[in-house]
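Appendix C: a fully annotated inverse folding record. The material below is reproduced so that readers can follow the format used throughout the book. The structure is listed first as tokens, followed by the designed sequence.
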């Protein structure tokens, strides 16, 4: 996890350093720090978080927070300086975005196991169990109806919790067996976005 997070951070910094577009406020801060990572969470912060949620967090999430207590956004947008929250801001979706939960659960959908428990390219983003949204953990801010979530209602044999990239743009959720593959996909997407913005800015 540590090696991957450092790789992710280095790739973002590299792209910002060579970008053809002017750096915004968030990007300037990243360039000054030379990192998108934040200081690690302490043991007491991790214990307090699990106590507050009354949930045993999976190994990958604890390791993630032990390396970086949050991750910076890569663009100054929607008053959201972080893409992933520190311990102090991680909480329940129904408390942080009750309207979003209400809208998505007005007409509950509960696909069967044969449709739901598919991950990777084999899954269809529309097959989500909407009632799960009533008890989901937010890993980052809700931006334009999208948010990274942890699902304590689906714990796999290795102790990991299902992770969601939930967004109205899908529409639904891209679901992962755990947090690491979600982070890897987000790293890839973030790097692609910065490359694209830089390439297209050259012609504007």
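Designed amino acids, in order:
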């Amino acid at each position: 996890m540590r090696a991957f997070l450092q790789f992710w951070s280095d790739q973002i910094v590299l792209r910002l350093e060579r970008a053809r577009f002017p750096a915004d406020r968030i990007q300037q801060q990243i360039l000054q720090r030379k990192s998108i990572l934040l200081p690690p969470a302490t043991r007491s912060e991790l214990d307090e978080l699990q106590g507050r949620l009354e949930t045993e967090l999976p190994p990958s999430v604890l390791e993630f927070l032990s390396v970086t207590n949050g991750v910076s956004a890569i663009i100054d947008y929607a008053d959201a300086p972080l893409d992933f929250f520190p311990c102090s801001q991680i909480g329940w979706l129904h408390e942080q975005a009750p309207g979003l939960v209400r809208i998505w659960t007005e007409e509950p959908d509960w696909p069967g196991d044969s449709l739901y428990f598919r991950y990777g390219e084999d899954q269809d983003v529309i097959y989500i169990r909407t009632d799960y949204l009533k008890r989901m953990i937010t890993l980052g801010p809700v931006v334009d109806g999208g948010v990274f979530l942890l699902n304590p209602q689906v714990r796999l044999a290795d102790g990991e919790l299902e992770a969601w990239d939930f967004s109205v743009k899908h529409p639904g959720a891209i679901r992962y067996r755990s947090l690491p593959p979600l982070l890897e996909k987000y790293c890839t997407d973030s790097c692609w976005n910065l490359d694209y913005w830089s390439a297209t800015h050259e012609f504007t």
